[in-house]
Each structure stands twice: as C-alpha cells, then as structure tokens.
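Human:
Focus on the backbone:
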Amino acid sequence: MPLQFRFETTHQDPGSRARRGLLHTLHGTVETPVFMPVGTHGAVRALSPDEILATGTRMILSNTYHLYLRPGAATIEEMGGLHRFMGWSGPILTDSGGFQVFSLAERRRITDEGVEFRSHLDGSSHMLTPETAIAIQRALGSDVAMILDECSPATATRDEHIQAMRRTSAWSRRCLDVFGAGSATGSALFGIIQGGTHADLRREHASEIVAMGFDGHAVGGVSVGESREEIWGVGELTGPLLPAEKPRYMMGLGAPSDLVRLIGYGFDMFDCVMPTRNARNGTLFTRHGMLHIKNEAHTRDPRPIDEECACYACRRFSRGYLRHLFLSGEILGHRLNSIHNVHFYQDLMRGAREAIASGSYAAWRDATLEGLAQGVSKEAEA
C-alpha cells in the first residue's frame, strides 16, 4: 500500500502563528514552510533537476493547463507519469489549470458546467470541467492535486466574488466526487478559498470549503491586482480559519517579504515564478535587498552576488562576470542567476524553519524584513 499523504506540525512559534512541520507524500517527506519553484511546462526554467535539488528544493509545482495542451496528459501518462517524464523524483503539486484559463479573458467562456476555452497555441477549442481537471492531474501522477476554482480579479464586484465562491464550492464537490479515495494512490486533493478582499466572504467560504474534508487548503484569488497590504490582510484573516492539522497553502506569490509575513500568519506552502522570472531579467535577491546585475556599477565588481550565500553561482563567479553574461545574452547567465535566486528562496525557508524551531520567529521576521527593506532602499539610491 502506498504511503498515505499526511501532515504533521513539529514546532509552533510562541510569538506568532508560524509553525514548522512535515509534509509526507508518496515521493518523499518535505519540511515546511516550503517554497515550490514553478515548472510550468514540466521544467523549472533554465535548470536541470539536479541543479534544482542542489538549491535545497524538495517540491515543485507544475502547470496542468500547459501540460494538457502540450504534450498532452495521455502522452505523459504513457511515458510513466510526470515524475519520470521530467526526471524529478521529489513531490509535485499540480494546479488545476483554472487560473491560466481564467486569465485568457477573450478566449474563454465560464458556465456552471466548466470553462470552454481556445488554446493559446493553435486556437483549438477545449472544455475544462472539475471532472477533467482531476482526470488530467491523475494522469500526470501529481502528489497534490488542486480543485478547479473560479478566480476573480481584484477589480471584480462583490456580486462577482460571490458568484465565483458559489461556483468554486459546486466545482469542489464535483472534484471530490471524482477524486474519490485519492489517498489509496498516495495523492492528496486541496480545496481553494475565494472571496476577494471581503473579510465576511472569506470567512464564509473558508467555513464552507473546510467542511468538505479536503486533505489541505489553499487561499486563491490573491496577487491578481490587490495591493500588498490587502494580500497580507487576506493572509492574516484566513490563516486562523484553516484547520491546524492540515497544510495551508497561499497560492501564486510572492516577494521574499510577502513569504516572511505569511509564514507568521500560519501558512506552510508557497509557489511563485518570481525567482526564475527575475533571474532572466537580471534581478537577483540578496539578504540586503534586490541587486540589478546589469547596472554599470558591477562591471569590475569581484564580489559574489551575496557574500553570505553558498550557492554555486556565489561560490564560483563574480558580479562582474555575471553582468558580462547578462549583457552578452549568454544562457549561462540566466542559469546562474536562476540557481542563485531559487537557492535564496530556499535559504529563506531554512531560516524560517530554524527560527520557528528555536521559538524566535517573530524576532527573525522583523530583522529579515528590516534587512530586505534597507537593501531595496540602498539599491534604489545606487
């Protein structure tokens, strides 16, 4: 019988809601809080599985929508599932594809049945329903699958948020019906809470989704146009509404300072394209804020990106060399930048876990946020 999906809390910080835990999956146990780099097409951009592992990454996210369209869920299933297909042996969380479909705007039509959309690749017509979203994720062989939800933008009216909540709840029940005894295969299914920035709607939907009995819970509909303060407010509100015995996942963000705050609100899981996307744009994360490697000031700078970082890029190469690679358009520059940024995020998670274990998360959070803020200011002045 396969290993059952299970979450356990190992430490609770006395000065905040931050907690450290273990996420047990069929493909290994992951320490939380955990950051999952995004492998949209079955690959974390510019990095090999071995390089991803070397950054300290133990779990990644892949995108159902893109893999469904190319190469196709049936192809991946025939090739032995997504883990074997992409050469990654650790746990994989797959999103439902809903966010990508909803972002298509002019290419989709939402009904109570599901979402009809046209492929951004060739214009072909497709129908994504709760049932097909689960079927695709089963074919991929993900460790954690997500329900199909309707994600409303920040500009949505209150009535539109209510409609999205109602539809998400109805789709959640259908996902549960077809997912069935998912734990028999070692997989898990997470519910998603909507409601925009409306506190009463978030409370109502959290109560409704939690009552359905999912293996974990996610907060969706964030980072879709809200201010950072509004996002933090949603996190601070919803964290305590979710069961302590199950993992809490804040979807699709964020900046290092966002993660530090949200861990303090009790969230365990995060994902974002920011580390690799910023790396390709020449923006690198350090303990003292962001560093823009294309700046002329780095032309003859012999220092590493971050003198406190132990990643491969920082151990071997100078800022001057990395600037040269970036301006030359060399792929190696993108790769080294990505290695560093993903490593930075994993270092941040390690630091958070250690602070929680020692009962000092609140102090660590405040010191970390201060360092990041000061660094951004210095960089801006440069």
Q: What stands out?
A: The first strand starts at residue 6 and ends at 12.
